[in-house]
Design brief:
- The C terminus is likely disordered.
- The protein folds into two domains: 81 residues, Immunoglobulin-like (Sandwich), CATH 2.60.40.1080; 232 residues, no CATH class.
- It starts with a helix and ends in an 11-residue tail after the last strand.
- It is 13% helix and 42% strand.
- It has four helices and 26 strands.
- It is mostly beta strands.
Length: 382
């Protein structure tokens, strides 16, 4: 009898503990991709990696899909293949109801320029256009001198363009020309005319101006309608006056640093990219040109785009695709690309207020490169 009561008591206790086990909490799943935008050439491929959270749980199945199989296809492992020109969105979906999918936009181009762009050189050219009312005395490494702010042209060019001192530029490629403020020595004497921070060796101990030398405005498109109307007018112009009016529209919708085209030493007005960020300098140890460029290319490399604008093409008598018309309302597309040869440990975050970053070292063409930051004190060397 006692044994029966004992085993009955054990059974009741076991039931109590079983009944008190906590209920499993529902898992909050999430999915992201290691890349959200990819640029491929036709025939290229890339592997997208899905990151599922929480990582310590057995992940549900993932389904990969494309919204435009004529441009890009994807397999069950996340490998994307570019099969045609255009744009496609690749989506990774977890087999769990209510979980937001992860997307990656794939732009397929037919041009290697955007993928292999490299900066070839840069420098300051011309004599600054002085700004009235900016006269000041700066404490330089050679002593206090009367100076004045002025804008001078910063040139930067890709590796397909060559500069020879005394001969100018040759080759065909992309070219940046932007005005930046510098200090110009106006005091009469041995140093008159030498601007501050160049290879002549004058450096400012303390700046007394709100203007940051060697900083330029980021490039941007301000009015797509004006941009399209400008192009339409230039393409259809029958007189010089009509072309000039259309060109004024085209020029008026761009501000800041832009890349343009140079063909065999001749510069053209057509803009190719907004420069949203640039950091250019010379490495003291390796004597190599270092740069980081963030560009917004107007998509001019795909057959359905004309300098970023959606267009309609047709075949001419020889079977070549030619522009027939621009699609209206205008549809503008840019391709975001970043180019750098700066080692990751040396890269700096862009300053919030600076869009074309002050160069660590300013290369003045034909002279030895020297630091261009204005807060560096270096003795002048004759």
């Amino acid at each position: 009898m006692k044994k029966s009561l004992f085993f009955a008591l054990i059974a009741c206790v076991a039931l109590v503990f079983v009944g008190c086990e906590p209920k499993p909490q529902p898992i909050t799943w999430g999915i992201t991709l290691d890349q959200t935008e990819v640029i491929l050439e036709a025939g290229g491929s890339v592997k997208l990696t899905a990151v599922v959270t929480p990582a310590d749980q057995q992940a549900p199945a993932i389904t990969w899909t494309t919204d435009n199989p004529d441009v890009a296809v994807v397999n069950g492992s996340g490998i994307v293949e570019a099969v045609g020109l255009g744009t496609a969105t690749i989506t990774a979906t977890l087999a769990v109801e209510g979980v937001a999918p992860a997307n990656c936009v794939v732009n397929v181009t037919n041009d290697a320029v955007l993928n292999n762009f490299a900066l070839g050189g840069y420098g300051l050219f011309g004599q600054p256009a002085l700004i009235e009312g900016t006269d000041t005395v700066l404490e330089l490494s050679v002593g206090p001198l009367q100076c004045q702010l002025g804008y001078i042209s910063l040139y930067a060019w890709d590796e397909n363009i060559v500069f020879v001192n005394g001969s100018g530029f040759s080759g065909s490629g992309k070219f940046l020309i932007v005005d930046i403020p510098v200090y110009w020595i106006t005091e009469e004497g041995a140093y008159q005319g030498a601007y501050i921070g160049n290879s002549k060796g004058f450096f400012v101990d303390t700046l007394v101006s709100d203007i940051d030398p060697y900083v330029a405005e980021a490039g941007q498109m301000t009015d797509v309608q004006m941009y399209g109307d400008g192009w339409k007018g230039m393409l259809n112009a029958e007189t010089d006056e009509e072309f000039a009016a259309a060109k004024e529209l085209y020029e008026g919708c761009h501000t800041g640093a832009q890349f343009i085209e140079m063909s065999e030493g001749q510069l053209y007005i057509y803009k190719y990219a907004n420069v949203s960020f640039a950091n250019i300098y010379d490495d003291e140890e390796t004597e190599e040109l270092r740069y980081t460029l963030k560009l917004e290319w107007y998509d001019y490399v795909n057959t359905d785009r004309f300098y970023g604008l959606a267009c309609i093409t047709e075949e001419d008598e020889e079977g070549n695709l030619v522009l027939a018309s621009l699609v209206e309302p205008y549809d503008l597309r840019v391709i975001h690309k970043e180019y750098t040869n700066i080692p990751a440990e040396e890269e700096e975050e862009p300053a919030e207020a600076s869009v074309l970053k002050p160069m660590k070292k300013n290369l003045y063409i034909g002279q030895n490169p020297v630091p261009a930051t204005m807060d560096t004190k270096i003795m002048y060397k004759k």
